[in-house]
Amino acid sequence: MDPMTLKPLARRLSLALVLASPMILPSVAVADDASLTREMIVNDPAAPKSGATNADVTIVAYLDYNCPYCKKSAPELERLAKSDPKLKVVYKDWPILTEASVYGAKLALAAKYQGKYDEVHKALMAIPGRKIPAERMLAAVTASGVDMARLEADAKAHADEITALLKRNDAQAKGLGLQGTPVYLVGPLFVAAALDYGQFKEAVAEARKRAGKS
Fold it and tell me: What's the predicted TM-score (pTM) here?
């Protein structure tokens, strides 16, 4: 999904208010599945987060480490999170493109247990291209400065938790009807495209406007 094919930001924003009700999923979702509620999509305690703890807007980002458009937007989203003191970003690792995508997601989520998710996420998103093999991902993570011995131990000790989180992310994405990555839930807005810093900022401003916080 190349944003250059859709010029005005308004054409990239589905203003269907996907987070406007307790259950935001279509009828194909299992209504009594706790992992598919709005609360778990936005506030899953196991999902990595960055930014403000008292945020007035949350961006939920569904991403794959082999998605070139995710990689294009990653530094733009990071820049926004650092510049906006009232913004929170929730990362939803959704590895759907290759088996190596799953491997990369598990590395990143294992790094979370030593407080290094952001570093590993950034390292993986910085690898250019697509269809990145697992070996190259491992090399990038090793170079990021994380404690690899601990990462390996955490990956084993928390394997069930990591797998469960990836399954929840997948169930949520499918319940929302997502077709690919990246997808950003910016407050009540649904953005299925790669955005630059200015476009992210505009989407956040629109979310605040709709919430009466602008």
Answer: 0.85
